[in-house]
Design a protein that fits this description.
Helix content is 80%, strand content 0%. It is built from three helices and no strands. Helix 1 runs antiparallel to helix 2.
Length: 79
């Protein structure tokens, strides 16, 4: 189950890191349009990152749980 979760969450983590880097650049471009928040408000970035990682973890949890319940011999025979 751990291997399935790590395989599923690795691309989500890399995408999150790249997305955060791109959003920092985008915030600097649209800084004049932001109202009521600082250009690099850490609370917003942390909240969005946590919500995206939680959604990715929930999306990976059910398939990982199902894969951990399959008999390895049956899985190899069906391959």
């Amino acid at each position: 189950m751990h291997q399935m979760l790590s395989d599923g969450l690795r691309p989500a983590f890399y995408g999150l890191v790249l997305g955060l880097a791109a959003s920092v650049g985008a915030v600097r471009l649209i800084q004049s349009m932001l109202y009521g928040t600082g250009p690099l408000d850490a609370a917003i970035f942390v909240t969005v990152a946590a919500m995206l990682l939680a959604a990715a973890a929930l999306a990976c949890l059910f398939p990982a749980w199902r894969a951990s319940r399959i008999d390895p011999v049956q899985a190899l025979r069906s391959e």
